[in-house]
């Protein structure tokens, strides 16, 4: 049976690894935070105390880490995965990182005889928990096909965007749009509230009108409008402002690569950056709604 080593059991990775276990796949897990490893052990995964222990006999390595520097360090540091793997493996990185970093990682792994695909996700913590994530994959078709069983256990829509790095480009385009939509939706809702409207009524109206979008449908930023979303839970959990700021930084460098014109992306980046700098970095990104409130 295929052995999977899973690294990074945070807001997203914990649920993703649980879904692999539910699909009866053979999963060994590791995170720097011991309590997260225990959480997964309770769910039926094999816990490990070190990188070396986690990759023993691994055929597939999956990582779900904050940023590119974490992935490079986990893979290539002296105590990193490549220095402990005895056989050859398929690496699947689901983190959102620079496309150039994914390409460089792919080349380095190839030089060690391993294979690599970038497979960033969309769908948020709810999608991770429900196993309905969208995977946006860059890599060889044969590796994409080999990863399918794993990805299917964690997601619903699985796209092959192109060569290694292409998954990250598509993901970053999507997240720049998401930031613009979240800021715009917050702005419109707050303007309605400022003019005496009930945000729930406003949301219902816009949901059936031309302003309809993903944030209104599934992730309303105004507290109390929708149950089970971060805005109704003091903006805890979900997708951190810090991570959205990281993605908007990636969007700006992606745009710079080919001189793409991204004025709304730049504005969204400034809005989220000011919001993060004001001490909100660890809140869910929908908390940008608060940036539009009167003092
Ligand atoms: P998170 O900060 O909640 O989790 C990251 C986990 O990685 C932490 O548990 C941390 O301890 C662990 N980690 C860091 N370095 C490690 C190492 N060397 N070895 C093992 N574990 C290590 O982040 P998250 O929200 O789960 O996001 C993970 C990635 O997914 C990010 O790249 C993010 O941009 C992307 N993403 C997040 C969401 C979301 O809604 N949260 C949605 C789509 C994509």
Automatic annotation (TrEMBL):
PROSITE patterns with a match to the protein in the record: 3_HYDROXYISOBUT_DH
Record keywords, A-Z: Branched-chain amino acid catabolism, NAD, Oxidoreductase
Catalytic residues identified in the record: 171
InterPro entries per the UniProt record, alphabetical: 3-OH-isobutyrate_DH-rel_CS (IPR002204), 6-PGluconate_DH-like_C_sf (IPR008927), 6PGD_dom2 (IPR013328), 6PGDH_NADP-bd (IPR006115), HIBADH (IPR011548), HIBADH-like_NADP-bd (IPR029154), HIBADH-related (IPR015815), NAD(P)-bd_dom_sf (IPR036291)
Pathways involved: Amino-acid degradation; L-valine degradation
SUPFAM superfamilies reported for this sequence: 6-phosphogluconate dehydrogenase C-terminal domain-like, NAD(P)-binding Rossmann-fold domains
Protein name per the record: 3-hydroxyisobutyrate dehydrogenase
Source organism of the structure: Glaciecola nitratireducens (strain JCM 12485 / KCTC 12276 / FR1064)
């Amino acid at each position: 049976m295929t052995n999977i080593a899973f690294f990074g059991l945070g807001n997203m990775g914990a649920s993703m690894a649980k879904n692999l276990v539910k699909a009866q796949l053979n999963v060994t897990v590791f995170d720097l935070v011991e309590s997260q490893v225990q959480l997964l052990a309770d769910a039926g995964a094999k816990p490990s105390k070190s990188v070396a222990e986690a990759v023993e006999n691994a055929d597939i390595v999956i990582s779900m880490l904050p940023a590119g520097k974490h992935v490079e360090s986990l893979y290539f540091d002296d105590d990193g995965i490549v220095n402990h793997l005895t056989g050859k493996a398929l690496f699947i990185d689901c983190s959102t990182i620079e496309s150039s970093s994914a390409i460089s990682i792919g080349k380095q792994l190839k030089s060690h005889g391993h294979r690599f695909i970038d497979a960033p996700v969309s769908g948020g913590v709810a999608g991770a928990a429900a196993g309905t994530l969208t995977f946006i994959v860059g890599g060889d078709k044969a590796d994409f096909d080999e990863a399918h069983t794993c990805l299917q256990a964690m997601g619903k829509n699985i796209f092959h965007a192109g060569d290694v790095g292409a998954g990250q480009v598509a993901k970053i385009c999507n997240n720049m749009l998401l930031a613009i939509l979240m800021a715009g939706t917050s702005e419109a809702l707050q303007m309605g509230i400022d003019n005496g409207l009930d945000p729930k009524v406003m949301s219902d109206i816009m949901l059936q009108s031309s302003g309809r979008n993903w944030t209104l449908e599934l992730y309303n930023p105004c507290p109390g409008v929708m149950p089970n979303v971060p805005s109704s839970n003091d903006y805890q959990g979900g997708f951190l402002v810090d991570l959205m700021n990281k993605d908007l930084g990636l969007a700006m460098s992606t745009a710079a690569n080919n001189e793409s014109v991204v004025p709304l992306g730049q504005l969204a980046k400034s809005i989220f950056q000011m919001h993060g700098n004001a001490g909100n970095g660890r809140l869910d990104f929908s908390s940008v709604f608060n940036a539009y409130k009167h003092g």
